[in-house]
């Protein structure tokens, strides 16, 4: 999964900025998962209110003055958990495939689909800035984004 790369990038940003608690990274993910084990799935408020899991509140301290703060925070936690859940599922599938000595067949049609998906993902990432431009009323950006 891409989770390890994400963790490295987040941790690098946290260390270089000197904000280990304020920038979400793998340590926060650990405590989020531990909170889910203890309090249950999607029990974001219970996890946040438990002092033992206070580290997951640190990255949001600067946003506390915003009106939709709790909703924004809970949505982030839900999205982050989904990311972790997907990565754990993928890693378990890879572990099982290795245990069964399964290999990928490059000629299988699914591999072509995987290549096409990677191309589309790359295109979407390279044009990500256009969505902001389009929302700001930039008509050429909107036309490119539409295509």
Automatic annotation (TrEMBL):
InterPro entries: CHD_C2. It comes from Lanius ludovicianus (Loggerhead shrike). Coiled coil: none annotated. This is CHD3 protein. Residues 21-147 form the CHD C-terminal domain. Transmembrane segments: none annotated.
